[in-house]
Amino acid sequence: MTHGIRRILCCVGLRGDCDLVLAQAVGLAQATGAELHVLHAVKSLSDDVLNTLKTSIQDRQMLESLMAQRLDQARQELDERLAAFWSRYPERREAFGEREVTCRVLEGYPSSVISHYATRTGSDMIVMAANKRSFTATYAGKVTKGVIKRARVPVVVVPTRQD
After folding, report:
1. What is the 8-class DSSP label of residue 44?
2. Is 157 left (phi over 0), alpha (psi -120 to 50) or beta?
3. Burial of 147 by CB count in 10 Å (0-12 exposed, 13-18 middle, 19+ buried)?
């Protein structure tokens, strides 16, 4: 029995260059005809930070606004990075065609958020960065290892660029 790849989840961080991960995910989506979902998981604030904010900012509406703004900024940056990727690689955009790319920003513990989102959306594959500067014996970062441990689907780990 052959299992087709219908939906690919591409997980990107916003700190470094996410072009390698996007390029791999776009290529896989093109080759398989799969939908492409791009996700950035924003790490939740620690309890200490949240308690400090709640103590320092008495206005509940202001606090909620600041918390929402944090996710909105991440979403805006994700949109900008995806647009920059397409503008740097117009041939990939043209080959990908008019297919829609779904972008989401969610908050929580990143490896858990990624794994749950993949399950919830019925993703058949997860593509993400190794998140380490060198491809040594421990090639994957903490989030990547957590996703590999929790995932119910194959995880494609894209190594970082080595200069």
Report:
1. P
2. beta
3. buried
DSSP tally for the chain: helices H, then strands E:
6, 5
Q: Are β-strands 125-129 and 101-108 bridged in parallel, bridged antiparallel, or unpaired? A: unpaired
CA angle at 141 for the pair 139 and 81, rounded to the nearest 5°: 110
Q: Retrieve residue 18's tokens.
A: 């996410």
Q: Is the distance from CB of 99 to CB of 130 less than 8 angstroms?
A: no
Q: Is 11 left (phi over 0), alpha (psi -120 to 50) or beta?
A: beta
Over the stretch 125-162, which tens digit does the pLDDT of each residue have?
Answer: 999 988 755 544 445 578 889 999 999 999 999 987 65
pLDDT in tens, 16-42: 768 999 999 999 999 999 999 999 999
- Quick count: other Cβ atoms within 10 Å of Cβ 87? 9
